[in-house]
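To whoever is covering the structure queue this week,

Two jobs came back overnight. Logging them here so there's a record in the thread.

Job A:
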Amino acid sequence: MEDLTKLCPRCETTKPQTEFYISAKGRLSAYCKPCMAAYKRANYKPRPARHETECIHCGGPIDLTTRSSRGRRFCGAECRVSYFNSLQTRDFRRDNHLVKRYGISLVEYNQRLAEQDGKCLLCSTPEEDARSGVLDVDHDHDTGAKRGLLCHRCNWGMGILGDDPVLLRKAADYLEGKL
């Protein structure tokens, strides 16, 4: 007949197999149920929070009692809307556009603008009078090199003529009546 008892090494008592947990593989645990419970209580370490407990906008508490609170970063809709609206300032959007499109930051743009006295490099149109109130970043389409800040009309005119210096000189000669 099969032995239906097992020795628990922790409490050093022989107990029936029903006093031991059965693993997923069908094996009996090393310790009896009471010893295993005592071990787990003694060695319990709470897990760190998996999600924010404070609103990232106002610092207020997030209600974590609801199931949908998992992964929440704001205490309410007002904070969420206010937070994202604060990110969507004109300068924020302009900086993102400049970095993605031309590889320069708003700080670099403003430095170039100051070097040009706030005007188009060719026709001296002030930035305020330019289309949308900003100057275009003129760049070489082949190399990507940034040449300067131009008003939309000057940048467009050069682009229409293919950024070709010979063609631009011919156009200037034509306008001056030399052709």
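Job B:
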Amino acid sequence: MNDSLVIETSELTKRYGERILAVDRLDLHVRRGEVYGFLGPNGAGKTTTLRMLLGLVRPTSGSALVLGAAPGSPDRLVRVGALVESPSLYPFLSGRDNLRVLGRDRGRSGSCCLRSSPATSSAASPSSAACSRSCSVCSPSGASTGGGP
């Protein structure tokens, strides 16, 4: 990968079943500092492309790199911000609890811990390596061992 590229795809393709071709052999090169947008009618593959780049959907064929790694790589996702379409949240849960559910669903250990900031009791942020021992999201038993939210 070229160091100046933050997104690189080669013949990235996504099919749903045999009839629906959502993305067809996309070659894309986005350089550091560029602003890039997707324009097109409904069904053109814009959302599917973003989901593949975030590792939320697996491509049928082709390849992609985001910040030099495979889409969805946890060490790269911490450097990416995205809101694809509209968020799917449980309206009866707080933001913190929605993140806990998401962490459990994804089987994340360490990267999903939420801690309270000294400045504000509702701030959520990635934690240190102690995360897996200190919160109910990351601990194997699902029970908090103290020190977490």
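Note for Job B: Residues 109-113, 116-149 have pLDDT under 50 and may be disordered.

Please reply-all if you pick these up so we don't duplicate work.
Q.
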